[in-house]
Amino acid sequence: MCGIIGAVTKSAIEPVLEGLGRLEYRGYDSSGISILSNNEIQTIKAEGKLSKLKQRLSVQPIDGDCCIGHTRWATHGRANVTNAHPHQCGQVSVVHNGIIENYLNLKQQLIQWGHHFNSSTDSEVIPHLINHYLAQKMRQEEAIEKAISQLKGSYALGILINGASNNLYAIKQDSPLVISQGNSGAYMASDAMALGADSGKVYYPKDNELIKLNANEIKSCSRSINKKIHFINNKQCTKIVSKGDHSSFMEKEIFEQVDLLKRLSVNNHTSEYSIINFKDLNKITIIACGTSYYAASVAKSWFEKYANISVEIDIASEYRYRSPIVMDNELAIFVSQSGETADTLAALRYAKSKKAQTLALVNVVNSSIARESNFTFEIYAGPEIGVASTKAFTCQLAIFYKMALEAAKQRSFLKETELADLSNNFVQLPYIMEKILQRCSAMKKMAKKLSNYKNILFLGRGMLTPIAQEGALKLKEISYIHAEAYAAGELKHGPIALLDEQMPVLVIAPKNTLTDKLLSNIKEVQARNAPLFIIGDKSIKEHINLQDDEFFELPLIPESILPVISVIPMQLLALYSAQTLGKNVDQPRNLAKSVTVE
Predict the structure, then answer these.
(1) Residue-wise over 190-222: b if at least 16 C-beta within 10 A, else e?
(2) Which of 114, 271, 335, 537 is most buried as measured by Cβ atoms within 10 A of its Cβ?
(3) Where are the beta strands (DSSP E) in 48-149?
(4) How is the chain split into domains, by residue range?
(5) What percentage of the chain reaches a pLDDT higher than 90?
(6) Is the pLDDT of residue 359 over 90?
(7) Lowest mean pLDDT among 155-169, 379-393, 584-598
(8) How does pLDDT run across 503-555, given as a tens digit for each residue?
(9) Cα 379 from chain centroid?
(10) How far lies 588's CA from each of 182, 475, 575, in Å?
(11) Is the model's pLDDT at 26 over the cut of 70?
């Protein structure tokens, strides 16, 4: 969940600070840099936003040609300057993204050897180990490899060592790391977004491949690998993305969905997904976390309804621990915006070990999950800066929809006229979305009223149950209002006990085949005096008396695309509720954009 960057170039602190700025979208609670200056390492750290670190550097200016930087989300130890990275011991300074699982045993051993620790972090054992072996007269590379061999867990490391060599070392295990050679220097980072305009080409090292960067070369030091460095074109965005005229990145990204869906619907044929042989598949398993899991839940309905394929969905963090049965001719789809989600990556490796066909559905085509899968489909959402995912979710749904239609075509499950109707529905998506966004002022009124409550219950039916779950998640993520979502038919199986004047219920109730059944659930809510809010068809108001700020009207929408459209009011509700409460919409507390540790 942390971000790391390093540079070997003239005035290296500048590209490092710029890179840390590009990593701000991940979220963090402290930051710091170490720079090799006059053959000595100087380290400066600060709690809070990057501006605090820049302020400290303005009154304590330093310069050098070899620098590492870090933004931290607290895992081991509280958010403070002492626990902030880089961590330094003697000749060595280290930035770390990951978790060292055996750090307590290593720390106890180092204490027995006479070492003293300052922080509460797991990361501090790394510079202590390297420094310990350097004191035994080992070469730099040898000391690093000896230390690394004792670590259990995940890590991406940037390592500086005192001296005149100006070397920057980088190594990884189950955490993302990218190496770049530019015209003016060499760079390493946990995310290609951190790299600047000088980084035209990148290289993704293998696990435990020790890389040495200096002014003259980028070299693999690992004796077991002993290969030349090969570079590929860097297609990642290297510019800091602007909010434009919007109040937040989240707001901007909600409104960007219209153009993104227009682009995806311009060429609406599904032949690009024909590289997957859906006809002979026995089963599809979709593995994901968080918002991506709810996209998978909708996709399950589409694949089963339109293509008659059995689909299982799994939470990535649970998948490999339940010893899932992988069938012959099974396709395992791994969904991740960043393509670096640690749990999803581990699940992918498990499925590959069981000989499943693997497909990555990602927003970053050079990510770890994409590189390790048999097939990759990009969602084309572009950089998503807001921590709470919006446009990536709808783009995931769009690609899943097109895949389901291709599967239906290959399996001859639908008539050609039915396929044509479903395809035409997809073309309508962005235009219906646009109409809803033009009525955002109505959602502001609902959000203002709902934000007065501490708890909210969301209800949906069928394919809209995952949308209710996504709406509840969004509200929790950025407004910190406790929200739970249920299939409406489950109301009487427990949640109804919560209903009273202080427990509002929000129901997604567009016009579809389940509207009549949903009406009975709505009546049950009213009978218990729970405040009622509805996002739905205007016919509902014939049965239910609601104020203007308690009802948001949805137009008539083809049933197949209801999930994609219905999530837009949910996103707006979360956005405006958080703004009403004065919350940081783009960087909610305790959350990171890319969860790269278990």
Answers:
(1) bbbbbbbebbeebbbbeebbbbbbbeeebbbbb
(2) 335
(3) 66-72, 87-89, 92-100
(4) 3-233, 245-438, 440-598
(5) 65
(6) yes
(7) 584-598
(8) 999 999 988 877 777 888 888 888 898 999 999 988 888 888 888 999 999 99
(9) 13
(10) 34, 11, 12
(11) no
* 440-598: CATH topology: Rossmann fold (3.40.50)
**What residues form DSSP beta bridges with 94?**
87, 159
Which runs of E-coded beta strand occur in 122-234? 153-161, 168-173, 178-181, 185-189, 201-203, 211-213, 218-220, 232-233
**CA dihedral (503, 508, 511, 512) positive or negative:** negative
The CA distances from residue 584 to 27, 348, 578, 580, 587, in Å, are 11, 34, 8, 11, 6
Tokens of 470: 């996504």
Report residue 592 as tokens. 């990171």
pLDDT single digits (tens) 381-406: 988 888 899 999 999 999 999 999 99
User: Is it the case that residue 210 has pLDDT exceeding 80?
Assistant: yes
List the one residue out of 385, 398, 340 whose CA is nearest residue 364: 340
Helices 416-437 and 391-411: crossing angle, nearest 10°?
170
Q: What is the pLDDT of residue 238?
A: 44
Query: Which residues touch 476 (CB under 8 Å, ≥6 apart)?
Result: 482, 483
Distance between CA atoms of residues 433 and 569, nearest Å: 10
What are the C-alpha distances in Å from 422 to residues 391, 408, 426, 511, 536?
22, 11, 7, 17, 22
May I ask the CATH architecture of the domain 3-233?
A: 4-Layer Sandwich (3.60)
Contact between 405 and 389 under an 8 Å Cβ cutoff? The reply is no
- Per-residue confidence at 270, pLDDT binned at 50, 70, 90? low
Which residue has better confidence, 50 or 596?
50
Per the CB < 8 A criterion, the answer to whether 94 and 87 are in contact is yes
Structure tokens of 150? 């004792």
One fold for both 3-233 and 440-598?
no
Span 454-473, average pLDDT: 96
User: What type of residue is 390?
Assistant: T
Active centre residues (catalytic): 2, 593
Structure tokens at 218: 């980028």
* Strands (DSSP E) found in 199-342: 201-203, 211-213, 218-220, 232-233, 283-288, 311-315, 330-336
For tokens 């060595």, the residue is 92
Joined together, the tokens standing for residue 292 give 């991506």
Residue among 486, 480, 477, 479 nearest 457 (CA)? 486
On average, the pLDDT of the chain sits at 89
As a whole number of angstroms, the distance between CA 223 and CA 328 comes to 38
Computed from CA positions of residues 295, 297, 301, 304, in that sequence, does the dihedral angle turn out positive or negative?
A: positive
Query: Is residue 144 a contact partner of residue 112, using CB atoms and an 8 Å limit?
Result: no
Three-class SS of residue 302? helix
**Number of Cβ atoms within 10 Å of the Cβ of 474:** 26
